[in-house]
């Protein structure tokens, strides 16, 4: 008998759009030729491109709303269009930006937000004669930043303000980057139609996997599906139809799932939540945002309720620590339009919202790491602590904010560097009254200086072969040229 699909508790998660007065309104967003999402969020702030050329950012509190004045304070970040931006997963006020002016800058947002225009970054990195395409913080190493420029992937130590690693093995422009959640491997999609998986710490072969991906030169995106060995990409096939593919590292040459969507021209932005396995597809220029659930066997992608509204300029997910869990808000998508930011709440229907529904909120990653960039490069890995989203423990999930950072004397960031040193540099410690998370200690583990691929990829067990059986799927599994 064939195995049966079991619907999960997130199947009926419905998008709830707030009234206009609960949105950020009267902003001016242009049309930008970038590979970025044009908006990003931490648990404390949202940041998005504004004005015609997109060289400035508006940075607002995450729950801000209402009409915005044309004279509101801005982050005057670059001399040309900002192509991508990302908040640190460990410091809600630490923002990295990349631009067509070939520079990468790191900013500290004051605890109360921008009360005046901000023009001075904490540090600046140069990609010389090439525009910056993507910017992404590492998921487990504190203050480790990855950027791409043309064919080059670079890792920067933000604290020491220096380059740690560079790889130029791509043959064309890198369009998207995504780290595995454990921070060991990184996936890239490229204009040469190749999908690559890289191990920056390997002393032998740094490109561990490579295969043909979407067969159009139009923009493609990549997102690693959490801690699993599976990677999801979006792009266009040879007939210019939009498609979504899922690949397993253990059978990398052929996708285990290809979902052909439509012939629209908008670049699909994949937004994935590894805690709930919820996937959102927001197309630049589209008026709909699709919700699908990722499962670990056929059909792999289960369609949920689709949202229809205004035309999308960009989109991002809000971190779990900022959600209204008492209203069963399991995810929130910030949709950037030409004149507004719309917070779309995805709510699981329940008879009552008086109590905390713990079955909807698995423990999520804590916003702290004890691994420095130099330590990670030398082979130190760590498993991030997990925290509960139960409001009775809300003191554990406060945004990690603090006073303005300072420039200290040169620190020795070897494998003995501690999280306290890094927090001292950026002056953004956790709330002093917070007790230890879950009462557990999550010390970093030291790997070999060159971690083997076997330690990063889980072998395919014999019993996982997709033969017949009676198993049930558990509740879940595991733009450059586009003008909008």
From TrEMBL:
Keyword Repeat: yes
InterPro entries xref list: Coronin, DUF1899, WD40/YVTN_repeat-like_dom_sf, WD40_repeat_dom_sf, WD40_rpt
All copies of domain DUF1899, residue ranges: 4-66
Keyword terms, alphabetized: Actin-binding, Cytoplasm, Repeat, WD repeat
GO cellular component, one term: cytoplasm
GO molecular function, one term: actin binding
Residue ranges, annotated region (Disordered): 395-418, 431-484
Record field: compositional bias (Acidic residues): 462-474
WD repeat spans: 75-109, 125-166, 167-208
Highest taxon, organism lineage: Eukaryota
Residue ranges with Gly residues bias: 475-484
Cited function: F-actin regulator involved in anterograde Golgi to endosome transport: upon ubiquitination via 'Lys-33'-linked ubiquitin chains by the BCR(KLHL20) E3 ubiquitin ligase complex, interacts with EPS15 and localizes to the trans-Golgi network, where it promotes actin polymerization, thereby facilitating post-Golgi trafficking. May play a role in the maintenance of the Golgi apparatus morphology.
Name this polypeptide is given: Coronin
Species per Swiss-Prot/TrEMBL record: Graphocephala atropunctata
